[in-house]
Amino acid sequence: MAIRIGDTAPDFRAVTTEGTISFHEWLGNSWGVLFSHPKDYTPVCTTELGEVARLKPEFDKRNVLVIGLSVDPLDSHAGWAKDIEETQGTALNFPLIADSDRSVADLYEMIHPNASDTLTVRSVFVIGPDKKIKLTLTYPASTGRNFDELLRVIDSLQLTANYSVATPVNWKNGDDCIIVPSVSDEDAKEKFPAGWKTVKPYLRITPQPNKANV
Ligand code: BEZ
Predict the structure, then answer these.
(1) What is the number of the ligand 1 atom nearest to the C-alpha of 46?
(2) CA nearest 86: which of 115, 130, 53, 37?
(3) Distance between terminal CA atoms of the chain?
(4) DSSP calls for 179-207
(5) Are residues 118 and 71 in contact, defined by beta-carbon separation less than 8 angstroms?
(6) pLDDT range class, residue 1, cuts 50, 70, 90
(7) How far apart are alpha carbons 171 and 205 in whole angstroms?
(8) Angle value at C-alpha 139, between 53 and 147, nearest 5 degrees
(9) Among protein residues, the one whose CA lies closest to atom 6 of ligand 1
(10) CB of 183 closer than 6 A to ligand 1?
(11) What average pLDDT is seen over the chain?
């Protein structure tokens, strides 16, 4: 069955470029991003892995552990990692699962047989500290993902988790947010000391809580 938002992220043990891990234990209390690549030594994947390595400090700042997956063995990953460093200018600095038996790819339904019987699509799962799935994304093999967008979504998810706000269309970090409908005006007085603007009773705009001047 497909993995959906709100489901518990399936746990697994896997061999990675940084040793064998048990996924939930490895995540600890952090947020997590699990993302798949169709295959080692492929051009789009090479650029993506270089970019995630470059963005690692941004994931660290947000308390997010990143882990990639490719259905190739560890020795293949080791050779490919050298190419990634050489061509993208950043060495791999996060684990890459060697899922040669496709057990994790199957568990997370990363192989879509009508696209390819053997390659994974570009799946992304964002997992919260409660081990629940917070976001899923699926891209085709031929389109590289936008990891700045992934950071933007993580910022939004973390604001919702910490401050009971949602984020409007095209929101960027620092922009105004929306008070979630489940918060009453009475409770909002305490939660949002910077105040809010009521455009409609269901549309209440407040400065981003962790940036507001109060
Ligand atoms: C790539 O990563 O470059 C790629 C992989 C499979 C199909 C097309 C592109």
Answers:
(1) 2
(2) 53
(3) 47
(4) E-TTS-HHHHHHH-TT--EEEETTEEEE-
(5) yes
(6) confident
(7) 12
(8) 30
(9) 141
(10) no
(11) 97
Find all residues with CB under 8 Å of 28, minimum gap 6, and list them: none
Helices (H) and strands (E) in the chain, counts: 6, 11
**pLDDT score of 57:** 98
pTM beyond cutoff 0.85: yes
Question: Is residue 42 in contact with ligand 1, taking CB distance under 6 Å?
Answer: yes
- The DSSP code sequence of 87-136 is HHSS---S-EEE-TT-HHHHHTT---TTT-SSS--EEEEEE-TTSBEEEE
Give the pLDDT confidence of 100-152 residue by residue, as tens digits: 999 999 999 999 999 999 999 999 999 999 999 999 999 999 999 999 999 99
Cα–Cα distance for residue pair 190/168, rounded to 1 Å: 22
Q: Between vectors from CA 187 to CA 185 and to CA 190, what angle results, nearest 5°?
A: 110
Please name the residue that has the structure tokens 């051009």: 43
The finding on whether 143 has its CB within 6 A of some atom of ligand 1 is no
Residue 177 among the catalytic residues: no
Q: How many residues does the chain have?
A: 214
Residue 214 in this model has a pLDDT that exceeds 90:
no
User: Which of 141, 163, 157 has the alpha carbon at shortest distance from 211?
Assistant: 163
